[in-house]
Q: What sequence folds into this?
């Protein structure tokens, strides 16, 4: 299916190159799933690509939680992800001033050289987005920033007035790919979508086919309801990587999210 037909108004208004790339990958895979690949070994991560790569559009990583990380093993993992037509999204949650965020894109992990997307808090002000974009620019690559407008965990401090300020500032910035919204609460997502309009993505963690409370304050909402409320990508971790049969679960999340997109459009 053509991306324009599947995404409707979002395709027309969300013109950032990385957003268009994502929407096309999602169409090829018929999946709005970003797998939160929270495995702590390189073998575990590579296995996930083999098992579920065909059912997901992006991989979300936490590069600093891997026990046996090495630059060579990571480079291999990233090429494997590219071959499987997956965007790579490092959920680094940058939060420092612009100049330091730029430097943090380099360093041991060299996030700027392999990430297509990263997350950032706007707590330090809007220059963080320029810093992160400068980081990609330093290695002549393009990338997009997802700003945390909401979080899925209980008791978080991203209150509605803070969300409004993040949306107002981020919506105007071409380096902002979109916003993280709370996938566990469709009503919060509906109101976030109203504020954001159609020109930016909303990606949502806190999604699971088994809704309710998760470990350590995590909360889960239903994938279909998240997409109908305005989410453009459901971020699913343990629902897939801890399942007995990850491929079967990934397929189910892909179908739920893709059918909901078609229903929404
Ligand atoms: P889970 O296993 O589906 O609960 O994994 C959720 C992932 O999304 C995990 O990697 C978190 O770091 C990430 N996450 C989240 O759960 N909630 C948030 O608000 C943000 C990220 Br931002």
A:
């Amino acid at each position: 299916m053509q991306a324009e037909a599947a995404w409707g108004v979002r395709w027309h208004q969300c013109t950032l190159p990385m957003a268009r790339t994502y929407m096309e990958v999602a169409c090829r895979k018929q999946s709005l799933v970003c797998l939160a690949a929270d495995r702590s070994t390189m073998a575990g991560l590579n296995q996930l690509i083999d098992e579920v790569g065909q059912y997901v559009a992006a991989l979300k990583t936490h590069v600093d939680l891997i026990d046996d990380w090495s630059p060579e093993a990571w480079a291999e993992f990233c090429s494997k992800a590219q071959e499987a037509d997956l965007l790579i999204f490092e959920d680094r949650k940058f939060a420092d001033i612009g100049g330091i965020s730029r430097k943090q894109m380099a360093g041991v992990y060299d996030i700027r050289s392999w990430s297509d997307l990263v997350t950032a808090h706007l707590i330090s002000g809007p220059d963080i987005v320029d810093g992160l974009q400068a980081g990609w620019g330093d290695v002549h690559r393009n990338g997009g920033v997802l700003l945390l407008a909401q979080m899925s965990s209980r008791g978080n401090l991203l209150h509605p007035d803070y969300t409004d300020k993040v949306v107002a500032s981020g919506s105007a910035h071409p380096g902002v790919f979109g916003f993280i919204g709370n996938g566990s609460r469709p009503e919060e997502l509906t109101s976030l979508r109203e504020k954001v309009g159609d020109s930016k993505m909303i990606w949502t963690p806190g999604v699971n086919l088994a809704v309710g409370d998760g470990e350590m304050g995590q909360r889960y909402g239903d994938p279909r309801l998240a997409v109908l409320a305005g989410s453009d990508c459901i971020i699913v971790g343990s629902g897939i990587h801890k399942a007995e049969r990850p491929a079967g679960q990934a397929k189910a999340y892909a179908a739920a999210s893709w059918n909901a997109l078609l229903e929404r459009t």
